[in-house]
Amino acid sequence: MDELLEILEKDGRASVEDIAKMLKKKPQAIRQAIRRYEKEGIILKYKAVINKELIKEKDVEVRALIEVNVTPQKDVGFDRIAERIYSFPEVVSCYLVSGTYDLLLIVEGRDLHTVSSFVAEKLAPLENVKGTTTHFLLKKYKEDGVVLKHKEENKRIAISY
């Protein structure tokens, strides 16, 4: 991958001037390259990784990984059913994967009931969906290469025999 893209992937807030210094190029050349990558759809979005566990609000959503077994369609394979599934607002990410299941979804909802209702009422009834397995995320330790710090350290009492 291009060095410029590697820098932006690690730190989307890196300034054009800092990137130019790192790559020993002129800032104008970096600006043009970034604009070209954005125009070509290579750079789609700039994102912050947020440690939601440290947010004081009680409205922390539930995330689940959902494995989906589907029947591919003639002439379009998995694409049409994947498009149908990722169009649901609950679906944050959708991947075609190898292995026992065909699609891996990352789904968010207000609570366990919201996610389970999505699976039962929207996902499972779809014509080409043969089966699902849902894994609720209990705790995140690392996301997008960033280790997340947690509010409280575990204060368990040591027990010895």
With helices defined by DSSP (H or I, 4 residues minimum), what is the helix count? 5
Number of domain units: 2
Shape: flat
Elements, N to C (H/E):
HHHEHEEHEEE
Tell me the strand order in the biggest sheet.
2-3-1-4
Compute the number of strand runs. 6
The CATH superfamily of the largest domain turns out to be: Lrp/AsnC effector binding domain/regulation of amino acid metabolism (RAM) domain
Structural class by sheet pairing and helices: alpha+beta
Description:
- With 161 residues, the protein is an alpha+beta fold.
- It has two domains: 37 residues, no CATH class; 84 residues, 2-Layer Sandwich (Alpha-Beta Plaits), CATH 3.30.70.920.
- 30% of the residues lie in helices and 21% in strands.
- The protein is built from five helices and six strands; from the N terminus they run αααβαββαβββ.
- The chain has a four-stranded antiparallel beta sheet. A two-stranded antiparallel ribbon has the order 5-6.
- The radius of gyration is 21 Å and the shape is flat.
Summarize the structure.
The protein has 161 residues and is an alpha+beta fold. It is built from five helices and six strands; from the N terminus they run αααβαββαβββ.
Structure keywords:
four-stranded antiparallel sheet; Alpha-Beta Plaits; 161 residues; two-stranded antiparallel ribbon; alpha+beta
